Amino acid sequence: PTRLVIDTDTAADDCFALLAGALHPAADLIAVTLVAGNVGFARQVENALITLDAAGRPEVPVHAGAERPLLREWVSAENVHGDGRGGHAFAVPERAVEAEHAVDALVRIAREHPGEVDVVAIGPLTNIALAARRDPAFPRNVRSLYVMGGSNNGRGNITAAAEYNFYVDPEAARIVFSAGFDTTVVTWNLTLDQALFDTARLAAISALDTPLSRFFDLVNAPTLAFDRSVGIDGSTHPDSLTVALLLEPGLVRRSRRYFVDVETQGELTRGYAVFDWGVFGKEPNATVVEEIDAAGFHRFMLDLLARRP
Ligand code: BDR
Ligand code: CA
């Protein structure tokens, strides 16, 4: 199995991505690192601990990282995620997070296992950018970096133009795309257009009636309600999709290399991702997933939530 580190702003979809990393046979989840994003930082830490407990993996180290973006103020997504755990009174595990900062942990782990660690970044890219600055060898030491962020059809979710993770810390995203990682990008619209969990797919998950499917239903409820309130007929799972595409590469039907960069100056377009198909004449710096096996991804989630840790 791949040595995996998940960098997350743990709420709702991030929780299911963590479950996948913790339980999939192709993954050896060696650390979870926390970055400022979806909901208040302390809550995100608790959500990660709760999720690892639900997965029966309380021994996985959790490292707290950047509590705000590089230059900007934190932007909450609590209107989408609530507290990130469905407002449910989960028992919060008493264990403390690691003393080591997330950025130090990322750099150390990649140095200890050069070319063997895959990092999945499903929040703003603050920790990943800081790690690349802290250790210029970090991008090379990491085998691959899977990023959930951006939108390549012009449809944003936090603004008309921008996807949340890139919007929150656009400077960090720029640093990451120019840092020399072997990067794969999973965009917001990929989930929306191809991998939506509609009513029938959600019913199939509920019908499992396992501890993890019940966890899913509870934690997913606020984002599902939000998605429906903005006219999306189902539930979006970009973060779990990102982990799924790393662990089961056969789920990728088509991908293409692009030069990717992120807008930091725009008045209307802060955090907008540019996917250049050749106009700039620059070397591609990322693989962008363009088509997936949606039924396969749903099966991936069913297999995951059917497990009894
Ligand atoms: C991304 O933003 C967050 O709200 C989700 O967890 C996901 O990582 C989608 O734009
Ligand atoms: Ca996220």
As a percent range, the share of strand residues is 15-25%
Strand order of the largest sheet: 3-2-1-4-5-6-9-7-8
State the separation between the terminal residues, measured CA to CA: 18 Å
Bound molecules: beta-D-ribofuranose, calcium ion
Q: Please give the largest β-sheet.
A: 9 strands, mixed
Q: Given the structure, what is the number of helices? A: 13
Low-pLDDT segments, ≥5 res: none
Provide the residue-averaged pLDDT. 97
- SSE sequence, one letter per element: EHEHEHHEHHEHHEHHHHEEEH
- Classify the helix fraction into a percent range: 40-55%
Instruction: Determine Rg (CA atoms, Å).
Output: 18 Å
Overall outline: globular
Q: What is the total tally of β strands?
A: 9
Structural class by SSE content: alpha/beta
Sum this structure up briefly.
This protein has 309 residues and is an alpha/beta fold.
Protein model, in words:
It is a single chain. With 309 residues, the chain is of the alpha/beta class. 40% of the residues lie in helices and 18% in strands. It has helices spanning 13-23, 41-54, 78-81, 102-112, 126-134, 138-141, 164-168, 170-177, 188-194, 199-208, 211-229, 238-247, 294-306; strands spanning 2-8, 27-34, 62-64, 117-121, 142-148, 183-186, 252-262, 273-276, 286-292. The mean pLDDT is 97. The structure holds beta-D-ribofuranose and calcium ion. Beta-D-ribofuranose binds next to helix 1, helix 7 and helix 12.
Fold blueprint:
Blueprint (H helix, E strand, L loop, with lengths): L1 E7 L4 H11 L3 E8 L6 H14 L7 E3 L13 H4 L20 H11 L4 E5 L4 H9 L3 H4 E7 L15 H5 L1 H8 L5 E4 L1 H7 L4 H10 L2 H19 L8 H10 L4 E11 L10 E4 L9 E7 L1 H13 L3
Parallel strand pairs: 1-2, 1-4, 2-3, 4-5, 5-6, 6-9
Antiparallel strand pairs: 7-8, 7-9
Calcium ion binds next to loops.
Pfam families: IU_nuc_hydro
GO molecular function, one term: hydrolase activity, hydrolyzing N-glycosyl compounds
Organism: Allonocardiopsis opalescens
